[in-house]
Sequence to fold (810 residues):
Amino acid sequence: MKRPLSFTIEKRLESSLARAGVISTPHGDLKTPVFIAVATKATTKGLGSFMYEDMGIQGIIANAYHLYLNPGEKTVERAGGVGKFMAWEGPTMTDSGGFQVFSLGEGLGKKVSKISIEEKPRESGVAVFDEEVATSHGKLAVVDEEGVTFTSHVDGSLHRFTPERSMEIQHGLGADIIFAFDECTSPTADYQYQKEAMDRTHRWAKRSLAAHRHNIDANAKQAIYGIVQGGRFEDLRLESARTLADMDFDGYGIGGSFSKQDILGILDKVNRALPEEKPRHLLGIGEPEDIFIGVEAGIDTFDCVLPTRNGRNGTVYTHAGKIIIENAAFTEDQGPIDEQCDCFVCKRYSRSYIQHLFRSKEMLGGILASAHNMRFLTRLTENIRASILDGSFQSFKQEFLARYK
Amino acid sequence: MKRPLSFTIEKRLESSLARAGVISTPHGDLKTPVFIAVATKATTKGLGSFMYEDMGIQGIIANAYHLYLNPGEKTVERAGGVGKFMAWEGPTMTDSGGFQVFSLGEGLGKKVSKISIEEKPRESGVAVFDEEVATSHGKLAVVDEEGVTFTSHVDGSLHRFTPERSMEIQHGLGADIIFAFDECTSPTADYQYQKEAMDRTHRWAKRSLAAHRHNIDANAKQAIYGIVQGGRFEDLRLESARTLADMDFDGYGIGGSFSKQDILGILDKVNRALPEEKPRHLLGIGEPEDIFIGVEAGIDTFDCVLPTRNGRNGTVYTHAGKIIIENAAFTEDQGPIDEQCDCFVCKRYSRSYIQHLFRSKEMLGGILASAHNMRFLTRLTENIRASILDGSFQSFKQEFLARYK
Fold:
């Protein structure tokens, strides 16, 4: 069977799992390690695909949960898939919606009613879905063996995802790389529940894979990644990696954790348990220092909302660390955000001007800061890749981190 | 004396005052008739100068009131002037702040306390400035013979503009074309008050001109336009045009009215009273049908916030008239906003996608709609100019307006 995705490792380091390679998709190559732009609702916040080339963006990751709710996967499918819909010709991924169902449904934050699976009585570890409870309590997510019933964060309407339904949605969205449907547990969940959830995620992974392979048309055009779960417990993470490694996935996502501390420390071990020849994606982690950790632990692709979220808040990356652009020190600063940056923002605009935009509450401020931050991260992974290829990774890393506070 | 602005009329129509020409400034040419982008706070809302070339933007108009409040004209001056500050190399204008002092101070809308000059006792037609009244009543603008005292719309702090101060600010901002400081009257002001205000505006025009010519450095680099006032009264408008025509301005702005109906009907007569060889700018009017009226009445340059304000609201221009992009009819519409448009938005994005962005409250929706609208208007004036030059203006106008509903 000819797979829609191929991964060639060009160079491996001996001192760590770091490697440089090329992931080839039907819509072009991802030269790894690479930072992928988040485009949750088929747009990177504040940044259009018309700006991607200038920002060195090689690929994007959209979200099945959000695009299922709006505009619906059928609309995206009729437009020719998520890439065509958003006018982006390069490689695309979609996350399965698992994280969003649980994070937006059950709620990480304070705005959400706490009718969570852990607070409800369970029979043999599985919450029993009770429609009356679900509809009467606003936002929630109730898991059962078959799938998850949840209320939309948009209008509170009731929806249900199963692994099969997530595949159907992701086939409609048509991204080059899709993800198995997984259960994201709460960071406070105890060991017993994490184990139950992980085992269920593995059964869902199998069903996701079967549903995907069964759709011959999608199978020929779209690659599927499994997602390693297990929360903050090392033995569960390793068990998850080994279990998924035995399944016929095209690559692997590591994620679903709500805290990066849960995963960065054991990432190296997790990746050693995964097949070496398949690409690995680290979901939702993207601070510069964490990217180095990820690369050395064998991660090939990254995505994270931080560059645009920070950008909208006026926090921008420089080689000397992050700065708050509204700081009075920059009022008369005619220099670019970062002297070393090659982005169109730094080529054109001063710190003084960008501060003025933020202080005047002009949306261009967030746009420019987001664009710069995005380029900062794509360039960081470009430079990491180059340093792996030419053998200078260790010195590049040391020099970068010595300056970056 | 070598002036910083020259205006060459390339062609005049016989059937109306319409004409095509070139305004040459120290930062390049404006090929007229032309629609100028509003950049009130040194940014067009949602659109960066890095996109201007794609949108066919030839020049921008920033605002002395807003830039005086934030970041202050000294900061802009130290950056090298408003063009350099916002990274725009082409021609720039600044409005004097008169309109904003009165519209944001005295208040067009409902949010503003109605302590207006017309409701205060006046001695011989001039409001006496009373600091106690001013500071105790929040937003207001109090006019006297010397100038206007007003509260900032940002923080309520007390400020004062005079013609001399407006010139000083505009010299700091350093635009190629600056405007005399004028009083904008309320649309409900009676004839007597309009006359008083107009006479005062003429005295202010003289003082603005003197202050400008006195600054030899600015005078050599910046052109100054007088502003025709007189509210909705034809005789006052004509008197204003004739009075200003006798002064040594480099060009003229027609404006200060809060209702376009006040001015469009008498524009032709007003412009006939102005010197034919000097350029004329119509302030704040930009609907396609009004641009035709303006061009035929002899207007050379236009500016208006409508393309971006409409864009942010999801109202977009097409050759068949304006459409609301969130309309259900466009949910599956894979075509561009306007089939005939050459903008980067129409080349790339579908109505379906842009609707999705608006429904999802993604800021990219407003950005793309604003960019398209801006190009629609710059292209309209490009086409009007071409039709004047090749003698097809009447048929172009008839065909355009027959389709545009």
About this structure: Residues 363-389 of chain B form the longest helix (27 residues). The mean pLDDT of chain B is 90.
